[in-house]
Amino acid sequence: MLTAMVTPFTPDGEVDYAAVRRLATYLVDEQRNDGLIVNGTTGESPTTSDDEKQRIVSAVVEAVGDRATVVAGAGTNDTRHSVELAKQAARAGAHGLLVVTPYYNKPPQEGLYRHFGAVADATDLPVMLYDIPGRSGVPIKTETLIRLAQHDRIVAVKDAKGDLFAAGQVMISTDLAFYSGDDLLNLAWLSQGAAGFVSVVGHVVGAELARMIDLFKSGDVEQARVIHSQVAPVVDGIMLRAGGAIMAKAALSMVGMPVGPVRLPLVEATEKQIAELRACLVAGGVKLTDV
After folding, report:
1. Is the pTM of this model over 0.90?
2. What's the CA gap between 158 and 179, in Å, rounded?
3. φ, ψ dihedrals at 112, nearest 5°
4. Complete DSSP assignment for the chain
5. C-alpha to C-alpha distance for 228 and 225, rounded to whole angstroms
6. Distance between CA 10 and CA 26 in Å, rounded?
7. In this predicted model, what pLDDT tens digit does every residue of 51-84 receive, in sequence order?
8. Is the pLDDT of residue 291 over 70?
9. How far apart are CA 12 and CA 166, in angstroms?
């Protein structure tokens, strides 16, 4: 169970490193996260500087690195920059790297293969690929994943492509560990053989998701399904409205863990969205402290 952690900001938009440590501790100690992804999309990585990224990794490692796996986002659409971010994350103490498909420039599959290989070659850290064509514009095709699996340090995939059949082919052909990168499909991914989740709703229902994984892997599929149904309104409230980072930050405020605003071009949730989110959290059994 891993959560793609938001980046706390002060009211004037600076990174709040004390809040970074506090949030990481909450997610591991109270929300049962085995690991945290930092500097990912939900962490607003497009709007944080390289220096901020390094300090965020260091802060999270300092807070929870002795009892949780800290995976640092290092992917960009520039291979040289991604290599430097990977090296920087290693120096900051990260335990692994998350490398997203290069976005906007839409490279061919050979370009993806060489890009991921270059980043994996840059450090001794294990690498989780992040396949999210809805944001990157390009999927990592089955044959490319099978090729990449031959790299000693490419060990996992965060899948937000949602092609369960294609993923099954990769699982059969490789040792890559697949993680659900789409909270809508968490239970479906477990049934497909996924290792776990990289979740956004784990900010507020991480303990429930961890229990769902435990139940499923112990053979109690029916109780896992019950939890999946229980947290469905939370997934609706956070993922299907204004977007993950915006609504995750709003949800954290409602449970007594304020993490500040988002940075432009993201904007704060509207009053209507806040009201809808509150109703969804209540329906999902989340205990709120702002009511």
Report:
1. yes
2. 5
3. -60, -45
4. -EEE----B-TTS-B-HHHHHHHHHHHHHTS--SEEEESSTTTTGGGS-HHHHHHHHHHHHHHHTTTSEEEEE---S-HHHHHHHHHHHHHTT-SEEEEEPP-SS---HHHHHHHHHHHHHTSSS-EEEEE-HHHHS----HHHHHHHTTSTTEEEEEE-S--HHHHHHHHHHS-PEEEE--GGGHHHHHHHT--EEEESTHHHHHHHHHHHHHHHHTT-HHHHHHHHHHHHHHHHHHHSSS-HHHHHHHHHHHTT-----PPTTS-PPPHHHHHHHHHHHHHTTPPPS--
5. 5
6. 18
7. 999 999 999 999 999 999 999 999 999 999 999 9
8. no
9. 45
Distance CA 162, CA 203 (A): 22
- Tell me which amino acid residue 100 is: V
CA pair distance 224, 95, nearest whole angstrom:
29
Phi/psi of residue 183, each to 5°? -60, -20
Catalytic residue list:
130, 158
**142 has pLDDT over 60:** yes
- Asked whether 254 and 268 are in contact (CB, 8 A), the reply is no
Mean pLDDT of the 149-175 span: 96
Q: How far apart are CA 254 and CA 248, in angstroms?
A: 10
Alpha-carbon span 67 to 105, nearest angstrom: 38
pLDDT confidence of residue 6: 98
Mean pLDDT over residues 87-100, rounded?
A: 98
Look at residues 217, 223, 238 and name the one whose alpha carbon lies nearest to residue 284: 238
Tokens read off for 106: 């839409």
